[in-house]
Each structure stands twice: as C-alpha cells, then as structure tokens.
Write a structure and sequence with these properties.
Elements: H1 14-28, H2 33-44, H3 47-50, H4 54-79, H5 86-99
Helix pairs in contact: 2-4
C-alpha cells in the first residue's frame, strides 16, 4: 500500500475506495462478513463470478425475512395482535405529522447526500 511521503497516510486508488464503500454499505445493511468476503471474491472473478454474485444477497434476504418473522411473532405475543408492516407505520406517522403541520412535504425536498442538479 502506497503511503503519502509527507504525512505517512495510506493512499487508496479509486477501485479500493469503491470496494470499501460497497463493504460499508453491505455491513450497514447487516450482511455477514463471510458473505461480504464471498461477494468480493466473486467480484474479483469478473463476468465469470457475476451470476453467483446474487447468492450472498439472496442468503441475506432470507435471513432478514426470518428475523422479521421472528420479530413479528414476538410482537404478536407482546401486543396480542399482528404489528403493522414497517412501511405502513412510516407512512401513517408521516401523514400524521403533515396533518398536524409539524412537517411539510415538498417535491423539491432532497435526502441527505443527494447531489444538487
């Protein structure tokens, strides 16, 4: 790894930065490290590994589905009823805040980090 002669900091090329950003994104989504390693291995194989790159994502989606079902089961036990889906809850909360004038919705509103056009 090349280092800056003045500061001693490591210098990363664009490809390394892209991979680090992808790994950070996968990790924040809760993907397991072994699946991230597999994804990088397949990525390194180029087109040959492309077809298999979906596999770590499928496994992760299946794990998340299982976790959601287990959480819903716990919620049914605690609440005595089925919880509302998360998206429905978010929409209902947003509509309530808008109706009370606590937030305003605008088509021009951007999400954090969205580039100016």
């Amino acid at each position: 790894m090349e280092r800056d002669p003045g500061s001693g900091h490591r210098r990363y090329d664009g490809q390394a930065v892209d991979r680090l950003e992808a790994l950070a994104c996968l990790r924040s989504a809760g993907m397991r490290i072994e699946d991230m390693r597999r994804y990088l291995e397949l990525l390194g194989r180029g087109r040959e590994g492309a077809a298999e790159q979906r596999d770590p994502f499928r496994r992760h989606a299946e794990r998340l589905s299982g976790e959601i079902e287990r959480s819903n089961e716990r919620a049914r036990t605690v609440l005595g009823r089925r919880p509302r889906p998360a998206a429905e809850t978010v929409v209902a909360t947003a509509e309530s805040l808008i109706a009370r004038g606590l937030v305003a919705w605008s088509r021009s509103a951007r999400t954090p980090g969205e580039a100016d056009n």
